[in-house]
């Protein structure tokens, strides 16, 4: 695992190889914890986005699912802070039965 302090010195970036990520998921204490890890690790959701997720944000389209994050990252200049009305969509293949 590689960890580096961000330029602002208030947070860190962490990179894991696939084996380390698999070990992290397996070490999760519950199905809920595993789902949280997957939302961050496989969809790239940020810590402030994960608690926003509700079953109604999940939509099935064709053969995959789409997830809407009500206040996703603002990519227009606020440094990654939540946007007022921004929505982030992502396709995914993780088990989401804990949301339902």
Strand content: 15-25%
Please, what is the oligomeric state?
single chain
Outline type: globular
Count of separate DSSP helical elements: 2
Helix content: 10-25%
| Global mean pLDDT | 76
Distance between the termini: 33 Å
Descriptive report:
Helix 1 (18-26) packs antiparallel against helix 2. Strands 3-4-5 form a 3-stranded antiparallel β-sheet, with no helix packed on it. Strands 1-2 form a two-stranded antiparallel ribbon. It is of the alpha+beta class. It contains 2 helices and 5 strands. The protein is globular and about 40 Å long.
Which short descriptors sum up this protein?
alpha+beta, 2 helices, 23% strand
Summarize the structure.
This protein is an alpha+beta fold. The protein contains 2 helices and 5 strands; from the N terminus they run ββααβββ. The strands form 2 sheets. Strands 3-4-5 form a 3-stranded antiparallel sheet, with no helix packed on it. Strands 1-2 form a two-stranded antiparallel sheet.
Question: Can you lay out the helices and strands and say which pair or pack?
Answer:
Elements (H helix, E strand, L loop, with lengths): L1 E4 L6 E4 L2 H9 L4 H11 L16 E4 L2 E6 L18 E5 L8
Antiparallel strand pairs: 1-2, 3-4, 4-5
Helix pairs in contact: 1-2
């Amino acid at each position: 695992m590689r960890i580096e302090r961000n330029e602002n010195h208030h947070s860190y970036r962490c990179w894991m190889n696939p084996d380390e990520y698999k070990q992290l998921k397996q070490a999760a204490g519950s199905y809920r914890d595993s789902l949280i890890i997957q939302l961050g690790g496989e969809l790239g959701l940020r810590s402030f986005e994960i608690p926003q997720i509700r079953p109604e944000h999940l939509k099935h389209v064709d053969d995959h699912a789409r997830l809407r994050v009500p206040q996703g990252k603002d990519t227009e200049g606020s440094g990654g802070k939540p946007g007022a009305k921004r929505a982030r969509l992502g396709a995914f293949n993780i088990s989401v039965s804990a949301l339902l």
